[in-house]
Amino acid sequence: MKLSSRISRSARLAGNRRYALFVAVVTLALTSASVATADDGPGPFGVTTVTEVNKQSVRVGALFGSAYATSLAGGHHCTASVVHSAGHDLIVSAAHCLDGDPGDVFVPGYRDGKAPYGVWKVVQRYLPDGWNQGQAEDSDIGFATVAEVDGKNIEDVVGADRFTAGTETGATAVTITGYPSATDQPISCTNKPVQHSATQQRIDCPGFTGGTSGSPWVNGDQQVVGVIGGHEQGGLTPDISYSVVLGKEAAELYKDATSDPE
């Protein structure tokens, strides 16, 4: 489980050790990015770097528990991102990220303790039956709506990607952006996912430690085709991450989340 403040996969690593790993990975990425190549498309693939601030990246943000809703710094436990909906108020993450603190807030574009696009209160959560009835790893996907801020909806402030179920695993490369709990800056990595099983997909990207659960897998068409979670609630090592294969259950959940009048 790529969490930090709750019982988690990354809790098995000491905080200093985890931070040292993150620094080492990002340092390596920054020094090797200029020479890395990929046989099947533009590179570098499988290289993790600190995320640039741009129109796409600010749609991704950190989830904070209620205890950190005002102070923010150091309190994020998961990652989420804005996806398109009729209400312009929807985020997607892993189910195990949303199945917890009722006071969670979402901070898009969070960086260095600051919330340049506001702090958005999570209002309504949508989790699959498979998760609610037994925390099935094949159902580790969830949505949530967030309340307006200053009379505006979140999608109108930062934009949104499209949530897309049924995309073939590995058809194209994806970029994953997430927030390790040991740092207050997001990281990103691009690579091609591969099939882990009929219901799970995996990707090789270094440095995705605790806090990166819920990170979106976004393809070149700005479609979210996965989120870190699923098998082992995201993975037991920083270098390999998993996602549920987004199929019928995910599509139905998205439909519920976008049609519910609340």
Descriptive notes:
It holds the Pfam family Trypsin_2. With 262 residues, the chain is α+β, with helices and mostly antiparallel strands. Helix content is 16%, strand content 26%. It contains five helices and 15 strands. The radius of gyration is 17 Å and the shape is globular. The model is unreliable at 4-41 (pLDDT under 50).
Flag low-confidence runs: 4-41
Radius of gyration: 17 Å
Task: Count every beta strand, where a strand is a DSSP E run of 2 or more residues.
Answer: 15
CATH class: Mainly Beta
Rough shape?
globular
Summed up, the helix count is 5
| Largest sheet properties | 6 strands, mixed
Which secondary structure elements does this structure contain, and how are they paired or packed?
Blueprint: H1 15-32, E1 48-50, E2 60-64, E3 76-83, E4 90-93, H2 95-98, E5 105-108, E6 120-126, H3 129-132, E7 142-146, H4 154-158, E8 162-163, E9 174-178, E10 187-191, E11 194-195, E12 200-204, E13 216-219, E14 223-227, E15 240-244, H5 248-259
Parallel strand pairs: 8-14
Antiparallel strand pairs: 1-10, 2-3, 2-5, 3-4, 4-7, 5-6, 6-7, 9-10, 9-13, 11-12, 12-15, 13-14
Brief account:
This protein is of the alpha+beta class and 262 residues long. Helices cover 16% and strands 26% of the residues. It has a 6-stranded mixed β-sheet with strand order 1-10-9-13-14-8.
